Amino acid sequence: MAELNFQPGDYVCLRLAKEEIEGRVLESSDSSIVLLKLKTGYNIGIPRENILAGRALKRFKLEEEGVTLTPPTLKEGKKNIGLIVTGGTIASKLDPRTGGVAPLTEIGEFAKFYPELFKIVNVERIEVPFMIASESMTSEHWIKIAQACEKMLNDSLISGVIVTHGTDFLHYTSAALSFFLKNLNKPVVLTYSQRSIDRASSDANLNLQCAAQMVIYDCAEVMLVGHASNDDDFCYAMPGTKVRKLHSSRRDAFKVVNDRPIAKVWKDKVKFLREYKPRNNEKVELDIGFNDKVALIKFYPGQDPSILDFYALKYKGIVVEASGLGHLPVSEAQHNWIPKLKKYIREGLVVCAAAQTVFGRLDPYVYSNGRELLDAGVIFLEDMLAETALVKLGWILGHHGWKGKAKEKMLENVVGELNERLGVGFLDNNNS
């Protein structure tokens, strides 16, 4: 067994019986195992007894890693943008000693890890309202992001805003910002990465470069920008209320639902695919009233309608992911939902139906099932995504002046959440 004089953070080359392996030494709880992070981003453990020899290619220096980097100088000829950092993989850097991650919160750090971004735009201002995983966010976090956006969008020096965010619940935030930012005047681009920057397959760089291209173009909408395929070729700019995460790990996890992407975006150009709202001279206003007493329920076969007893006690509104064209068990079913729906809707509970199928539009008039639900007072949300519907319902119920107008407001197309022109062709909309 070779004598090894390595410290966590050192980049080393180890010689085994049949191969040599390079990687960064990580802290290990077992002294008999050398833990390495490989170039691929994966970690492996190697028993010390299997290591024939080893040498340090680069020693880790704590003082170099901890230094605050000087922000890049703003350059003439480039547009200035605002950057809002909220957490997630895209705003994380590797801790060379532990293999874990630490947040990127300063412009200088972003310039070190994402230099290509700064070749396209000047980052005039960076704001970090919080650093949190997206599954831990609440409506309070959406409001903080909206407040940070509003300040930047009303600054004449800033051409648009990029928001970096975790992936899992990013589409909830994009929907919330779509409703919260009234009179939008400049682009708001949310972006992400599925894979960390230390991995060769990271999607972070392309996503950020494409976000930078989109944020300086003539498109005043809330958009999500990310990989269009699993290759590193181009991204889609996707409308904030019509997008959903449809894969747990692929780089092109997000797809437009019941609509078309706004644009194809490359590192150096943009090709628009449909109409969009252009930049304007409006002053952005915050419209952040929100009632958290809303819930999303997924219907499943045999589900007892008594579940409504719980929600009626604690909530003001619910969105039910119904089957097919918008079906739930009705009069002839063993678990008939109609009596409880009528009771609680009469008492003030707002009940909406969205498509469990994700793609497609609800239609209560095709079968008698749908007509019974419609007569009971259920609001059929056409082609609106269930996640967008949840956010919109909370936003509507947060406006006290709209009391009694829930149905009217839910069916009003405020920011493109409803697509009246939906057709079969939209089911394959991400290959434009």
Notes on the protein architecture:
- Helix 9 links the parallel strand 22 (350-355) and strand 23 (379-380).
- The model is unreliable at 62-68 and 424-429 (pLDDT under 50).
- This protein has 11 helices and 23 strands.
- It is α/β, with parallel strands linked by helices and 432 residues long.
- It starts with 10 loop residues before the first strand and ends in a 22-residue tail after the last helix.
- The longest helix is centred in the middle third of the chain and has 15 residues, at 139-153.
- The chain has helices at residues 62-66, 107-113, 115-120, 139-153, 170-180, 204-215, 307-314, 338-346, 368-376, 386-397, 406-410; strands at 11-15, 20-26, 33-37, 43-47, 53-58, 80-85, 92-94, 101-103, 122-127, 161-164, 181-182, 188-191, 222-227, 235-239, 243-245, 254-256, 263-265, 270-272, 285-286, 294-298, 317-322, 350-355, 379-380.
- Helix 4 crosses helix 5 and helix 5 crosses helix 10 (386-397).
- The chain has 3 domains: 11-60, SH3 type barrels (Roll), CATH 2.30.30.520; 69-286, L-asparaginase, N-terminal domain (Rossmann fold); 294-410, Rossmann fold.
- Strands 9-6-10-12-13-14-17-18 form an 8-stranded mixed beta sheet, sandwiched between helices. Strands 4-3-2-1-5 form a 5-stranded antiparallel beta sheet, with no helix packed on it. Strands 20-21-22-23 form a 4-stranded parallel beta sheet, sandwiched between helices.
**Strand line-up across the major sheet:** 9-6-10-12-13-14-17-18
- For the record, give the distance between the C-alpha atoms at the N and C termini, rounded to a whole number: 58 Å
CATH uppermost class of the largest domain: Alpha Beta
State the low-pLDDT regions, or none: 62-68, 424-429
Q: Provide the structure class.
A: alpha/beta
Mean pLDDT: 88
Level of helix content?
10-25%
What is the CATH H-level superfamily of the largest domain?
L-asparaginase, N-terminal domain
Number of helices: 11
Number of domains: 3
> In percent terms, what proportion of residues is strand?
15-25%
CATH architecture of the largest domain: 3-Layer(aba) Sandwich
Rg of Cα set:
25 Å
Largest sheet: 8 strands, mixed
CATH fold-level topology of the largest domain: Rossmann fold
